Amino acid sequence: NNCSWTPTTQQACARSLCRSSGYSTGTFMASSNNPCNTSFVTGSHYFHVMDTGLVVYNDFILDSQVTASCTGAATVTVVSDGTAARPYCSWNSGPCVWNSTTQTECAQSLCEASGYGFVRYVATSNNPCDTSFVSGSYYFVIMSQRFTISYTSLFADSQITALCSTTGGFCLNATAAPTAPTVAPPTSAPTAPPTSATVIPATAVTGDVTCGSAVTGNTTGAPHLIATSSFSSAPEHIYTVSVETTAYYTFNTCGSLFDTWLHIYPVTSVLPDGTLVLGTALRSCDDCGSCGVQTVFDEVDIPAGDYVIIIDGYSTSSGQYTLLATCGTAPPTATGAPTAPPTDAGSISVSAIQGDLDCTSSVSGNTTGAPHLIDTSPFSSSSAPEHFYTLTVTTPAYYTFDTCGSLFDTWLHLYNATLVGSSWQLSTQFNSCDDCGGCGTRTVFEDVPLATGAYLIVVDGYSSNSGVYMLNVSCAATTPPTTSSPTTPPTPSAPPTAPPSTVGSLPASVINGSITCGQRVNGSTVGGPHLIDTSSFSSSSAPENFYTFTSTGGAWTFDSCGSL
Description:
Blueprint: H1 7-20, E1 25-31, E2 45-48, E3 55-58, E4 66-71, E5 75-79, E6 88-90, H2 100-113, E7 117-124, E8 137-142, E9 148-153, E10 157-158, E11 160-165, E12 198-200, E13 205-208, E14 214-218, E15 237-243, E16 247-252, E17 260-270, E18 276-278, E19 283-286, E20 296-302, E21 305-313, E22 320-328, E23 346-349, E24 353-357, E25 362-366, E26 387-393, E27 397-402, E28 410-420, E29 423-434, E30 444-450, E31 453-461, E32 468-476, E33 511-514, E34 546-548
Parallel strand pairs: 6-8, 13-15, 24-26, 33-34
Antiparallel strand pairs: 1-4, 2-3, 5-11, 6-10, 7-11, 8-9, 12-18, 14-22, 15-21, 16-20, 16-22, 17-18, 17-19, 17-21, 23-29, 25-32, 26-31, 27-30, 27-32, 28-29, 28-31
């Protein structure tokens, strides 16, 4: 908003261009246009961003092409030797391609891992698509995972020689090769953050997070850059956060598929090549919050400034994650809302309705950016946006509405409703609750008796919470589940520990795959066949997925944490 195209900013652009090219400095010569008025290009490219000092890949609307005279280049020849600073180059999956493009990418990774800027590829010991240069475990640039450096044992590799620039580039914190621990690590890491500063190359930043953002990704194969302590050597994804006004931020990784560990660091400076220099961690914690091993930072007081939020894993954990960021100018004064509802809520336009529900519905959506139409006062100061669904009950039944699997603190409301013209007129609020049910802050209405008629179900958020949600609807006949024990309770029983000797057979065509110890698989049972009769232990008619595994003895643990 304060674009200035002066000799000072022109020189800054020229200097950034030269340093990105491997020179120590440079002088502005010319530009294609004044970037405060027009753009030179359209689409996504690498840009030096004047108001942040970062070099980023993005699509901007005000830019120019700069010509500079660059000086001060100093080069060094680097040969890979399998260390963290000089990794070999390899593939571990997919088709191997060895051409000028992949040779350049290997050489660039070698220079950057050594703390230098990249100049050019020089030579290789062999074609890694045909033979290997070494055997055993070393550090490799894994080309099939795009510039990822990992300590492992591979079979298609080569030694690279590259010409690197000693001016510019960045330093990676090298870590020792992993060794087998002599004792089992604790189940939770200490919350005290490291005190020393570290650096993050611009190329390691996954993206930006703002208030209301919901981002997803997979850390598997990403580099390990943050030395938090001896408890973690897991790969990380790193997001920048710019806080304009002091606010209370909540970052949650509920719904992630591994044991997440979050860190927040302030950015103390940005080097000319875009490298972020980090100060002392503002907060670092593993297993904080209400989502078990999926870490949640609740209401962190963050002063104005630039920060990074780092998605890490406990020990060596990695995988798919979801990160939701919300914020407010003051922390909520209570952890939940009372369930007593107001008796009247006005009307909701037909255009605001997301859809119709029935007894078997399962819907999802994102309330971020939706309007805030329901006033839940005086029971809460909620200003969260909402999504609305209609429900028509033709036969009285007991309904259950659950938002388990949602990515924010949900609040559900249920209204009697009447369609009048183009609006749904809401009368009695039949039910309203925050944090009811067995899913923590993901509200569940269980066994709500609904008579014949029309209703409106509202997916709301506590305080200002919003984001991605899942809403599942089920219903049962008018006889509710037993809520108290009979006069003479039956003798408690449990499934037998010895399985029946035979339960039938499964055709090979229904097997989804085979699994081994340490493996993680994902899938969906929706639409699958129902083949297993659990007889007296359940009246389940749910569909199933099937996996085979071979055990050579020992205790196995199977967990479906993170399933929806």
